[in-house]
């Protein structure tokens, strides 16, 4: 970390902490301003199930006490912030005694796995295609096909997901319709299970890749146009280096680094898009958890999921900001 | 490119240029006649026109439940029950007997309305904060910069999910205002950066030396130079706003009683329309939304080329 100035590091740390505090406060404050009472919702669910509930007044009072709804607001806020430090979001109201953190811990690996795979694939494909759009030796067919494929950029992945799901799952039945792994396989490190996970994850990942590679391709195209006019490219050509060598070693290597900063701006939208994809594919990740929680009006889970996703986004941005000056020596961070 | 200034003579001087290339050369004279821009604007105008003409030539009351038989296919197609679609419902009906064409006529302008309103509000906030940060600098700049850095990492969808889960039904305007709270950051950053670089430039210094007021410098000297950036940022924000609104609707949140494209998709998924092969129910709104996003993307790409001539090519 020797090359990162302390003031820059401080700046990034302050931004990270502020992001987390503001997000946590908003998530806490918004439901407090609403007239809906989680204890009443829970009691309502019991009443709906059983017809009448004996001693409902008493249960309501106990629940409100249990959730700490009788404390002064500031005390509630302080308790909430302390709990959030330890990622404790309380107990789910829909599946009552289960802690929210357990539910999230079960869903998180699926979301992170799907996200990493789709981001790596899009980054590679997008940047390569973007570079090919500018390179003068690209076959003519590609020069026509790449811009045509980019029309799908900026369509939210939920729409591409629906179309792919209908074609490949419902019509052709090549891929399963829902879930993250088959009902008949036992989770574990077996070939059956891994195969099933890949089979189920293919369509969700594809629907994200199809609509996001264009973002990287467009950015890469702009950067490549700049690099193309640089003296070192001309020199490389004059030396008689092979065009392919110039493309990979001289042009892409110089153009790709600023693309990494684009992650910082894009990652929030990527995660939000993926949450929706998980919802339509009923993939066992955070999206499904969030959607089920919305249906059940399960506030602790909604708050927990939202907070964890925002935390993930903020951490990702923080890491990109820190790593970037290390890998791109051209950047000199002035004191902010 | 030497022929650029005298396009009429281009053909005579360089016979190896095809007629097509000469036509493209001429287009450089007016950057606004950009094909991407025109196609994109055409697509969006088409959707708006559908919303307006549709209300005149088609019965908007057909969006209500039970306007026709349920799950009727579009004209000439057959559903799983063997019913053939009729002209009474050219694009078929959904699971509650609502006419899909009427849903599009009412729903598509609603989606655009949310996007444009949210983006307009976000833009106004962004212009105000960006100019303040760039001009006043010091503490004000620090606060605005850190705040926009912070807010740009928070995905709007997740905060809005918490909000709507707590409050239930909201109106379209309310949804637009809520989304606007999350789309002011990028115009703020953009304007701040531009203002900081422009305030040292010759013509701004000149204006300041001639005693022009701050307002004059902001709106008469700087603003015209920002227009292509502002417009690009505006369109990008319209896209983000619509994506967020559709995301909320597909999660079953958002306005509950007003027909929107996202809500139609939500109802279709929940009723198992994918398995029952009721493709027109979710498919037609999906394709219309996709066209809307393609139109916005083309406008944005066109604007990029207008403001950055290096991206244009023959």
From TrEMBL, chain A:
It is a multi-pass membrane protein. Coiled coil: none annotated. Gene3D superfamilies: MetI-like (1.10.3720.10). SUPFAM superfamilies: MetI-like. The keyword Cell membrane applies. Its main location: membrane. It comes from the Bacteria. GO terms for cellular component: plasma membrane. The keyword Phosphoprotein does not apply. It is found in: Cell membrane. Keywords: Cell membrane, Membrane, Transmembrane, Transmembrane helix, Transport. Belongs to the binding-protein-dependent transport system permease family. This is ABC transporter permease. It comes from Rhodophyticola porphyridii. The lineage of its organism: Bacteria, Pseudomonadati, Pseudomonadota, Alphaproteobacteria, Rhodobacterales.
Automatic annotation (TrEMBL), chain B:
It holds the Pfam family BPD_transp_1. It is a multi-pass membrane protein. GO terms for cellular component: plasma membrane. One of its GO terms (molecular function) is dipeptide transmembrane transporter activity. The chain crosses the membrane at residues 37-58, 112-136, 143-166, 172-191, 226-248, 279-303. InterPro entries: BP-dependent_transpt_permease, MetI-like, MetI-like_sf. One of its GO terms (biological process) is protein transport. This is ABC transporter permease.
């Amino acid at each position: 970390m020797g090359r990162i100035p302390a003031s820059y590091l401080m700046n990034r740390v302050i931004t990270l902490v502020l992001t987390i505090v503001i997000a946590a406060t908003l998530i806490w404050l918004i439901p407090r301003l609403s007239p809906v009472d989680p204890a009443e919702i829970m009691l309502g669910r019991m009443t709906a199930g059983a017809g009448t509930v004996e001693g409902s007044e008493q249960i309501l009072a106990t629940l409100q006490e249990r959730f700490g709804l009788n404390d002064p607001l500031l005390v509630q806020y302080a308790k909430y912030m302390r709990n959030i430090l330890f990622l404790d979001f309380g107990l789910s109201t829909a599946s009552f005694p289960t802690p929210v953190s357990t539910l999230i811990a079960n869903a998180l690996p699926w979301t992170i796995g799907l996200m990493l795979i789709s981001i790596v694939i899009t980054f590679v494909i997008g940047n390569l295609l973007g570079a090919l759009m500018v390179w003068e030796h690209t076959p003519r067919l590609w020069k026509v096909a790449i811009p045509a494929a980019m029309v799908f950029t900026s369509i939210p992945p939920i729409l591409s997901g629906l179309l792919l799901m209908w074609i490949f799952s419902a019509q052709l039945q090549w891929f399963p319709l829902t879930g993250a792994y088959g009902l008949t396989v036992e989770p574990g490190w077996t070939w059956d299970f891994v195969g099933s996970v890949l089979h189920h994850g293919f369509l969700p990942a594809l629907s994200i890749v199809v609509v996001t590679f264009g973002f990287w391709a467009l950015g890469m195209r702009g950067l490549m146009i700049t690099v193309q006019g640089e003296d070192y490219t001309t020199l490389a050509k004059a030396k008689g280096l092979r065009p392919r060598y110039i493309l990979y070693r001289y042009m892409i290597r110089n153009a790709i680094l600023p693309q990494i900063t684009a992650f910082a701006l894009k990652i929030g939208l990527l995660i939000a898009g993926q949450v929706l994809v998980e919802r339509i594919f009923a993939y066992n990740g955070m999206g499904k958890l969030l959607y089920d929680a919305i249906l059940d009006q399960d506030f602790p889970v909604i708050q927990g999921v939202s907070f964890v996703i925002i935390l993930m986004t903020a951490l990702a941005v923080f890491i990109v900001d820190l790593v970037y000056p290390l890998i791109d020596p051209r950047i000199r961070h002035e004191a902010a | 490119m030497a022929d650029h200034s005298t396009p009429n003579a281009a053909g005579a001087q360089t016979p190896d240029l095809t007629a097509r290339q000469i036509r493209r050369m001429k287009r450089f004279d007016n950057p606004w006649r950009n094909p991407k821009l025109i196609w994109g604007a055409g697509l969006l105008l088409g959707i708006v026109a559908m919303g307006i003409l549709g209300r005149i030539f088609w019965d908007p009351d057909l969006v209500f439940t039970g306007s026709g038989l349920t799950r009727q296919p579009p004209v000439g197609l057959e559903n799983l029950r063997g019913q053939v679609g009729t002209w009474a419902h050219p694009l078929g009906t959904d699971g509650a007997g609502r006419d899909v064409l009427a849903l599009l006529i009412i729903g598509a302008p609603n989606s655009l309305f949310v996007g444009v309103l949210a983006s307009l509000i976000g833009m106004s906030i962004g212009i105000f904060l960006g100019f303040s940060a760039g001009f006043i600098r010091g503490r004000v700049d620090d606060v605005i910069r850190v705040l926009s850095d912070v807010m740009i990492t928070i995905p709007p969808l997740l905060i809005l999910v918490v909000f709507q889960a707590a409050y239930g039904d909201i109106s379209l305007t309310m949804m637009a205002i809520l989304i606007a709270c999350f789309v002011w950051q990028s115009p703020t950053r953009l304007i701040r950066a531009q203002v900081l670089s422009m305030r040292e430039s010759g013509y701004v210094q000149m204006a300041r030396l001639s005693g022009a007021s701050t307002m004059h410098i902001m709106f008469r000297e700087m603003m015209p130079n920002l227009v292509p950036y502002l417009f690009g940022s505006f369109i990008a924000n319209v896209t983000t706003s619509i994506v967020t609104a559709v995301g909320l609707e597909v999660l079953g949140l958002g306005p509950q009683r007003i027909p929107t494209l996202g809500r139609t998709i939500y109802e279709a998924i929940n009723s198992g329309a994918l398995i029952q092969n009721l493709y027109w129910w979710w498919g037609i709104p999906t394709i219309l939304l996709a066209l809307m996003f393609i139109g916005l993307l083309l406008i944005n790409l066109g604007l990029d080329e207008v403001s950055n001539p290096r991206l244009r090519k023959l």
